[in-house]
Design goal:
Strand 4 and strand 5 (180-183) form a beta hairpin. The protein folds into 2 domains: 8-73, Chemotaxis receptor methyltransferase CheR, N-terminal domain (Chemotaxis Receptor Methyltransferase Cher, domain 1, Orthogonal Bundle); 84-267, Rossmann fold (3-Layer(aba) Sandwich). The longest helix has 15 residues, at 8-22. It has helices at 8-22, 31-44, 50-58, 63-73, 84-94, 115-127, 142-150, 163-169, 185-188, 222-234, and strands at 104-108, 133-139, 152-154, 170-172, 180-183, 191-195, 208-213, 236-244, 257-261, 264-267. By secondary structure, it is an alpha/beta fold. Helices cover 39% and strands 19% of the residues. It is built from 10 helices and 10 strands. The strands form 2 sheets. It has a 7-stranded mixed sheet with strand order 6-2-1-7-8-10-9, with helices on both faces. The N and C termini lie far apart (55 Å).
Length: 272
């Protein structure tokens, strides 16, 4: 199969494109990523260069293809109960002290195909029984959100889900659905999935007790990180928590959050 070449000038075009639309800063080592993920779109349109494809997605009638390009260039890696220490902290340090009657709201701010949001839902349903809770799952990619809304996963994706949660919250597929599992309806109904671009002004989504923004900040430059964190802090309740990935840190990015555990931050009420 013919492999299209990506010139330095073309690479710079797509690097600027994804920074403008998603705030993602692609390093010099990401040239193969662009080639591998966009080459099939060139073949789809019978184009001979990446510049031609760039010109196509810049055209006003091509908003759908522009979103396809964004979907392909954003990384969506996730799995159930990823970084389990965070779920332990959520259960023992936050949910165990939840006494108020108001709705406990969580935002999975880069939910990808939904495994994180459904993991949180299983824990909330288990721990704060008979109390009101809601989850918002968001992502920039419309492609992964479609999967998230369905709550339907291949069985090889379920590693990490506790056995009793598998029994209570997951339906094993039969016949033509063999090899898959479906998250139970009562959890699917508690989660709203929406397309939100963290690099753009946030919609009116209310405030949250907890926001998960894990393994996302590593793709942004310092300026964009600071802007995103500032916007998310405004969406936290006065005593709310922000979870980031274990390889990430908010040091020198904000003084509106204080570290309370590895990669867990709480809103600084004195300032925020």
């Amino acid at each position: 199969m013919l492999q299209h070449e990506l010139t330095t000038a073309e690479f710079d075009l797509f690097r600027s494109f994804i920074y403008e639309h998603a705030g993602i800063n692609l390093g010099d080592d990401k040239k193969p990523l662009i080639i591998s993920r966009l080459s099939k779109r060139l073949r789809h349109y019978s184009l001979t260069s990446f510049k031609q494809y760039f010109e196509l997605i810049q055209g006003s009638p091509s908003e759908g293809e522009r979103q396809t390009a964004i979907d392909l260039l954003t990384t969506n890696e996730t799995y159930f109960f990823r970084e389990p220490k965070h779920f332990n902290f959520l259960q023992t340090q936050i949910l165990s002290h939840w006494q108020t009657r108001k709705t406990f709201r969580v935002w999975s701010a880069a939910s990808s195909t939904g495994e994180e949001a459904y993991s949180i839902a299983m824990l909330l349903d288990d721990v704060i029984t008979n109390k009101s809770w809601q989850i918002l799952g968001s992502d920039i990619s419309s492609r992964v959100l479609k999967t998230a809304k369905q709550g339907h996963f291949q069985l090889q994706r379920i590693e990490g889900i506790p056995r009793d949660y598998l029994t209570r919250y997951c339906l094993k597929g039969k016949d033509e659905q063999r090899g898959t599992m479906l998250v139970v309806k009562k959890l699917r109904e508690k989660i709203e999935f929406a397309s939100i671009n963290l690099a753009k002004p946030l919609p009116d989504i209310g405030k949250f007790e907890v926001i998960f923004l894990r393994n996302v900040l590593i793709y942004f430059d310092v300026k964009t990180k600071q802007q995103i964190i500032k916007k998310l802090v405004k969406k936290l309740q006065p005593d709310g928590y922000l979870f980031v990935g274990h390889s990430e840190s908010l040091k020198e990015l904000t003084n509106e959050l204080i570290s309370v555990a590895p990669s867990v931050y709480q809103k600084n009420n004195v300032i925020g």
